[in-house]
Specification:
The complex is a heterodimer of chains A (about 120) and B (about 110). Chain A has about 120 residues and is mostly beta strands. Helices cover about 0% and strands about 55% of the residues of chain A. Chain A contains no helices and eleven strands. In chain B, about 0% of the residues lie in helices and about 50% in strands. Chain B is globular and about 40 Å long. Chain B has strands at about 5, 10-15, 20, 25, 35-40, 45-50, 55-60, 65-70, 75-80, 85-95, 100-105, 110-114. In chain B, strands 2, 5, 6, 10, 11 and 12 form a six-stranded mixed beta sheet that branches. Chain B has about 110 residues and is an all-beta fold. In chain B, about 35% of the residues are buried. Classes of the chains: A mainly beta (about 120), B mainly beta (about 110). The interface of A and B includes residues 46 and 108 of A.
């Protein structure tokens, strides 16, 4: 149980375009989802926290207009990178937490390459 | 501010040898602590977690960790390392008393010699 999936696992897009990454909890209801960013050989940095039906809370320094997060249902959250630039190339990982649990379950990650 | 540190960036051990990965935390209250493993290009897998109670925590794949409040440490151990244990290991802690929003340590890369 407690499986989180991400789609796509790898995406290449051109500079200036937008790309959407999906995060799904497959067998539980995720009241809270988290989005992280990981640069090569570095740790994960929390970008934002989203609660189902509410606006996401962004960490300091993360542009909310550039990284649009939607958590419209208890099983799906999306991260849209708008007007992507090469410096947005990174590994994006989501995690999900169900109501009453302190534990996060992580997705397999999405590698974004902006050319 | 709360933080999690991992003093060792890279550790190399021989297969069959014992392993200890260090993790120190800085929290104002009782922390919730976790160890994750990440293989190249993969997501994170939870090895074990500490919330309260017994300070020696058993995890998957033969790993264990000990919470030591006096040393603000949560070191990960394994008595005999396998080649498949080569990966990146992250210690993490919750940033508040509600267990939400992790703070990750910088990670320790483990290499295993045959």
């Amino acid at each position: 149980g407690a499986v989180v999936s991400q789609h796509p696992s790898w995406v290449i897009c051109k500079s200036g375009t937008s790309v959407k990454i999906e995060c799904r909890s497959l067998d539980f209801q995720a009241t809270t989802m988290f989005w992280y960013r990981q640069f090569p050989k570095q740790s994960l940095m929390l970008m934002a926290t989203s609660n189902e039906g509410s606006k996401a809370t962004y960490e300091q320094g993360v542009e909310k207009d550039k990284f649009l997060i939607n958590h419209a249902s208890l099983t799906l959250s999306t991260l849209t990178v708008t007007s992507a630039h090469p410096e947005d190339s990174s590994f994006y990982i989501c995690s999900a937490r169900e109501r009453g649990s302190y534990e996060q379950y992580f997705g397999p990650g999405t590698r974004l390459t902006v050319t | 501010a709360q933080s999690v540190t991992q003093p060792d960036i890279h550790i190399t051990v021989s297969e069959g040898a014992s392993l200890e990965l260090r993790c120190n935390y800085s929290y104002g209250a009782t922390p919730y602590l976790f160890w994750y493993v990440q293989s190249p290009g993969q997501g994170l897998q939870l090895l074990l977690k500490y919330f309260s109670g017994d300070t020696l925590v058993q995890g998957i794949k033969g790993f264990e960790a000990e919470f030591k409040r006096s040393q603000s440490s949560f070191n990960l151990r394994k008595p005999s390392v396998h080649w498949s244990d080569a990966a990146e290991y992250f210690c993490a802690g919750s940033r508040d008393n509600y267990g939400q929003n992790f703070v990750f340590g910088p990670g320790t890369r483990l290499s295993v010699l045959p």
